[in-house]
Design a protein that fits this description.
The complex is a heterodimer of chains A (793) and B (240).
Chain A lengths: L1 H14 L1 H38 L5 E9 H6 L6 E7 L1 E6 L8 E8 L10 E6 L9 E5 H7 L6 E6 L2 E13 L18 E7 H8 L4 E9 L7 H12 L4 E6 L4 H42 L1 H9 L4 H41 L11 H28 L2 H5 L16 H6 L1 H13 L1 H39 L4 E9 L1 H9 L3 E16 L2 E10 L23 E4 H7 L6 E6 L7 E9 L7 E4 H7 L6 E8 L3 H13 L3 E6 H45 L1 H10 L3 H38 L12 H28 L2 H5 L4
Parallel strand pairs in A: 4-9, 6-8, 14-18, 15-17
Antiparallel strand pairs in A: 1-10, 1-11, 2-10, 3-4, 3-7, 5-8, 6-9, 7-8, 12-19, 12-20, 13-14, 13-16, 13-19, 15-18, 16-17
Helix pairs in contact in A: 1-9, 2-7, 2-9, 2-10, 2-19, 7-10, 7-14, 7-19, 9-10, 14-19, 14-21, 14-22, 19-20, 19-22, 21-22
Chain B lengths: L8 E14 L2 E14 L3 E5 L6 H8 L7 E6 L2 E2 L5 H11 E4 L11 H9 L8 H8 L14 H13 L5 E5 L7 H18 L2 E6 L10 E6 L2 E7 L12
Parallel strand pairs in B: 3-8, 3-9, 6-7, 7-8
Antiparallel strand pairs in B: 1-2, 1-4, 4-5, 9-10
The chains are: A alpha+beta (793), B alpha/beta (240).
The complex binds adenosine-5'-diphosphate and magnesium ion.
Magnesium ion binds next to helix 1 of chain B.
Amino acid sequence: MMSVLNQKLKQDIRQKWSMLLAVSAIIAVGIGCFIAMMSAAWNLEQAKNTYYASTRLADFRLDLKKVPIQEVKRLTSISGLSEIRERILFNVVLDIPKTEKVISAMLISMPDKAAPVLNNITIRSGTYFTPGRAAEVIVGEKFAKARNIKPGDIIPAILNNQRKELVVVGTAISSEFVYLTSPGSLIDEPGNYGLLYIKRSFAEDTFGFHGACNNIIGLLSPEVEHHAEKVINQLSQRLKPYGVFTSLSRSELFSSLALDNEMNSLKKMAVTLPVFFLLVAMLILNVLMVRLAEQQRTVIGTLKALGYSNKILIIHFMKFALSAGMAGGVLGIILGYWLGVSITNMYVIYFTFPALISDIYPGLFSFGLLISILFSVIGTLKGIHQVLQLSPAESMRQAPPAKGGAILLEQFHGLWKRIGIQWQMILRGFFRNRGKTAVSVLSATMGSAIVVLAFGFVSSIGEMVDLQFNQVLKSDYHLTFHNEMDFSALDEIRRLPGVFKAEPVFNVSALFRMKNHQKHGGISGIIRNGKLTQPIDEQGNSIQVPESGLLMSRRLMEKLDISIGDSIEVTPAIGERKPVKLPVIQAISSLMGLMVYADYTWLNRILGHEKLISEIRVITSHNEKQKQAFMKQVRKMPGLASLTDLAEQKKAMNRQMDNTMRYMAVIMIIFAAVIFFGAILNGTLISLSERRRETATFRSMGYFEHEVAGRFLRENMTTNLIGTLIGLPLGHWLLVISMQEFSTDAYSFPAKLAPMSLLYTLILTIIFVLLSQLVVRRILMNENWVKAMSLKE
Amino acid sequence: MKSSKNKEILINLDTIYRTFHTDEVEVNVLQGIDLQIYNGEFLIIFGESGSGKTTLMNIIGGIDQPTRGSISFEGKDIVTLSDHELTLHRRDNIGFVFQLYNLIPTLTAYENVETTTEIAFDPMDPIEALQLVGMEKRANYFPSQLSGGQQQLVAMARAIAKRPKIMLCDEPTGALDHDNSLKILELLQKINNATGTTIVMITHAGTLAAMANRTAYIVDGVIDHIVTNDKPTPVRKLNW
Ligand SMILES: Nc1ncnc2c1ncn2[C@@H]1O[C@H](COP(=O)(O)OP(=O)(O)O)[C@@H](O)[C@H]1O
Ligand SMILES: [Mg+2]
């Protein structure tokens, strides 16, 4: 008995293979998405975990002004602290020959002799420090590669206002800086910002830090892991007299944060995006199975009459649908693995690991297969229900004739008459096949929403970069200093060649506290009516800092649970470090970091200072000669800690976003195309098979092939354009949600959708429909309609 | 009609062969058909089931091409026509009536007729065509709301509405009961008489020969013989 059914199964599959393939393709894309992003996330996670463990990455980091090592040693008495390491850490300006630009680097002390310390570095070329020579340096590998620096090279640098020649002995990487950014920036700019490790003894001598340090890192014992914040706060409290600038737990370290954000985004996308595909696949399969049950009512009835049990028939129809699910699942796993490798490889450019390996996750693969099977089974249920409902006697009779009937639209008589029979036929057909039409519309809705989302990703990131670099930061360069300067520094900068405009900034590291919430951060004092730094409100409009009080990023306000008008306790990390209560005047939109702005003069006064400058922002001439002259002079400025080139930063930002987001967007659009093609072809193939006699009749009456095909085109165009029109707002809504989900303390993404994107989406829909039409025409051309004419339906 | 019995040839079929190639076997359905169809005549093609009547009809109507042989329509060769030209030929000259009516289920009777009038060169008004078959009162009915006989009447209105040179009816009463068949046949005769439209009708009911001008008998893929009938009997008077 089974062999007859197996024969039928084979035949069914052979007959409907193109429809099954369309369903499989959509499932494959969904599962592919899921597996690709999940395995990329897991690859990153694995690499991170092994790397962090093997190099013993610290659980926290404190930056302070200066603290005696004796004091640090006493900290070990704090319970929950299992190991501690002190370091000397400075931002310095390099004096690399033949580069006019000011290149800065982070200088970090390491033990003179290699030891398994916390945050240990991994030597990648050359050696660790050698005894005898003081001014040795181990260079961060990425920077070294970008600048073509090799062991044996000399790097001249300005250390504590003295020019020193550092001898490169090796290159290294560190788990602390998987993702490296300069202090003023949140983006990786290899070659513009470096990492230099020097001997502890040399650092002591150079910076006058004998028996002292300005950076503390440590491991917490396992018992306190879950309330790390408490221990870190306790530490901060103890070290308060030494001026704590920042205290960060491991997960707050920018490198860790960037990595975790990426993994989280991947995971979120991995579970949400596939839902669209699987849903569409399920619905299409549903239509397919219901139609199959209808078409085969006589066969089913005969089988039932012959004594085939319902169970056997269920299994038979399940097998048919499962073939699509399984094929989709397997294809999805292959696609997902391949795409996962490709995404993982993309991360190698940004994240520095000793090894970032694309692993195979059998559990994940099995889960993917299971999901695809599950969805295909659900897609079969209604068809099976129909099979079960059919009684043998009933099914032997011919199916009731296809019904035509008037639809609501026909009430508008004049209009209805004018649209012509083609459209009358199409519109009545839509209402006659409500379920199928709904699935066509819905598929287009999903597909276009994904396209909108893809466009939105690119334009939102573009908008963020644009707002940040064209609206908020209008300066060309930011100069920071090791210590606060007085106003004469501003005059000096203003006098430099090519400087058009210079404005002072007073940055204060501070601890914000509101009731039981607290967070380390900073306030930037900028001048009122200044031109170079213009905060924006939540609608993206430029606003001025108030005469008194703070502008605070909405996200920080939420973290601290502050409302507008509240006063917040601010403990500055400089001067007397006395807490003050400052009112929050307005919320701002902060694209990078959790910015807090105040008026320059007011902030100085309220903290008991006068015209202190920690940063100067300038606009310079773009004339090459003047720029060179400017750079030459700036390099000589004593106390300069870093120079940030905003044009470079913007470029780096755009480059990274281009590479990642555009890549994602292109993949998403390709995947959306699979939904469109799959759904259109499936719907059309079903229609074609149901209307063979109709089509043949039209041909015999003297309709051209393109006229017959035109009906399918109009149908598909209509359902898909309607679906797309619904998909546009859906896509926008998804974009808003995604951008909120992607936003972190580091980046905040405004949801921006260019009006043109909507048009492009519509155009893409039209292109997808037209391309599908090519296939439809091919099928029509190969159709033997002479034979179809005498078909009994 | 009698006046058009001056034997003006509308369609000339010259040694038509039609072979179908299925999987492994070759089916030689038509094996040298020679037949002239005269303008304005009522021609019946008679043959057993499977004898190749439909195949021949399809070739006459320009929806299928012979494997060998030639056909001319009004002296013009149609075997060499392109698909486009052949479609135009069907559009302008041929009216089909099928055994299973082949109405479009999503269109009303009126709209079904419109499918022809929309593309024809000099069509009737759809209502006029429906009046001709007595279905004007059902103009807004959908096929599913009509009986088989009524559906076939609409199908005939659809065929006639383009004012075809020839109507090809493939067992038009094959699926109908006696009374309904009678109606259809009467109508065909009426159309032939009133409009002078050439009608070719396929049937395997031998008694119908009396209603036609001529009856061609197909046996083994060739025209076995043709019986000419100088005085066709009105359908009502057929003992059928
Ligand atoms: N497209 C086709 N392919 C293969 N065989 C066909 C095709 N059309 C008709 N035949 C065969 O040709 C023979 C004649 O068919 P047909 O012309 O429909 O006969 P009739 O209409 O006289 O009953 C039959 O044996 C039929 O199986
Ligand atoms: Mg036949």
